[in-house]
Amino acid sequence: MQGKIVKGIAGFYYVHVVGMGVVECKAKGIFRNRKIKPLVGDNVEIDLLDKDKFLGNIVNILPRKNELIRPAVANMDQALVIFAVTRPNPNFSLLSRFILMMNKQQVKTIVCFNKQELVNDDKIKELKDIFVNSGCVVVFASTYENEGIDEIRALLENKTTVFAGPSGVGKSSITNLILPKANMEVGGLSEKIGRGKNTTRHTEIFNISGNTYILDTPGFSSLILPNIDKEEARFYFEEFTPYQGQCRFNGCVHVNEPDCAVKEAVAAGKINKLRYRNYLEIYEELKDQKKY
Ligand code: ZN
């Protein structure tokens, strides 16, 4: 029997089996010898020991598609990152960093801007244009007017999606609309004044239906850049891909080199200036990073 680990607490793993429910499992010693620890998100084979009490053993972990470090989860298909169109204004630097990290893990990012009722169409277009060649899907939502939620729901179908976003953007409200049963706590008063607090306590995947799962993560406070070389960062900006190999120098990092096809594309408006600026920030930051 196959299922997906949705939660792990004190040596117990909770495995969701489609059409059946959640089975409480232990991982047998074989994993310790193989130096592999089951992770939330793992697809596993289980032996059902007691079908009335929903007890079982994990006997095999299927190969992982990817693995995130923090939160420690496996097999994420995509990420949904939520910002507000305004109040608070989106932090694009943070957003670009997030997209880069996810791209490194081969996880596609859906960028969701909430509170769309607060801005006009020009602002919506401006936000769309920033990410037009980024490889990200961009959606707009209003939890206040219950808009965009069906579109998000459709994007989640049959996938495991990690939800992320800073506080105060309405992430909990969106999660609640997608998954009313989970009763994710909304930050209450603190959410209203634009400084929501973290309410997510442990790593848990929620099953929406069938093979559709979501993982909610607390804010961005724990977000750190994975170990990547500064020379590597350029490969995780999809905007640069069409210009690969067109710069004068082999190994051009598109910063100070002359005859750089990427910089020319930025100047010509073919690559979004803000996204390029975010790239430069990330590059500088990685340059200063200590090597261990
Ligand atoms: Zn270049």
What can you tell me about this protein's structure?
By secondary structure, the chain is an alpha/beta fold. The chain has three domains: 2-63, OB fold (Dihydrolipoamide Acetyltransferase, E2P) (Beta Barrel); 68-216, Rossmann fold, CATH 3.40.50; 230-289, Probable gtpase engc, domain 3 (Ribonucleotide Reductase Protein R1, domain 1), CATH 1.10.40. The chain is 24% helix and 25% strand. It contains eight helices and 13 strands. The strands form three sheets. Strands 10-9-8-11-13-12 form a six-stranded mixed sheet, with helices on both faces. A hairpin with a 3-residue loop joins strand 2 and strand 3 (21-27). Helix 2 packs across helix 8. The longest helix has 16 residues, at 273-288. The radius of gyration is 21 Å and the shape is globular. The N and C termini lie far apart (43 Å). Residues 182-200 have low confidence and may be disordered. Bound molecules: zinc ion (ZN). Residues 247, 252, 254, 257, 260-262 line the site of zinc ion.
